[in-house]
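Its record is quoted verbatim for completeness.
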Amino acid sequence: MLEAVERQMRHYVAELNNDIIMQLFEKLPKGKRLRAKLVLKVAGARREAVELAAIIEMIHAASLLHDDVIDDARTRRGVASMNATEGSKQAIMMGDILYSKGFEALTGFSPKIASAVARAVTQLSIGELMDVRLGERFNPDLDAYRQMIYQKTAALIEATAAAAALLAGRDEKIYAIYGRNLGIAFQIIDDILDITQTSEQLGKPAMHDFEEGKTTLPYIYLYEALDEKGREKLVSLHGKPLDEEEKGWIVTQMEESGALRKAYLYARELGEEAVALMEGEGEEALAQIVTAMIEREY
């Protein structure tokens, strides 16, 4: 049914009657379509579910376009980003168009569903701003990190699961908790993979998060585990290009301190809570999505 979601997204873009916008849209990498899969698993293959999945994927794509401009990312999922090929101005405007068209289509749903998604997009934008602010210096504040990744990543996944549950006439609160846990765990695993995987596996430069100023969970745990001298060295490496020796030092410290393992166990704990919730609802497919996400290698 993901093909139906792809067709629906093209249909929404085609309604704009602009060949340039369609050409730009076709250049966007498709990614995992995690949010669309959630909608279809929860709400089934009904027409409204396909439309909701398409809207949320358009909103997600818009957020990535803006995120790449903010991060000055030159690649996305192994291919050149739109800001790299078309310039930041076109990438920003394409993001605005997808946001706007998504919200236009969202008005066709019940106010409760539309409000859930709209609130999540507000949280996403706040999270993006907080990510930029936290990136101005090394951030050892665990609570600030958790709040930021909830807003930037998990809020839309939380709303996706809740909105799909509303569409299917199910208890949206249970599905919202599932989505929130899945979203936070998803981001933490992403943060871990940025350290442990190669550039080829990631489709972007490895350890780029720390170089561009992000202090993700493994780095916060590492900072807590290091002595004063080690902390000074870690902070001195933050927000700058790293050579191979510096990357090697970080990876070694991550492994010896147990920081990577601690971050993984936290993500797994959140994932197991989500799995238990879905198994209680008889939603084996949704439980499997969490397990696959936790165990992925890229």
Remarks:
- The chain is about 75% helix and 0% strand.
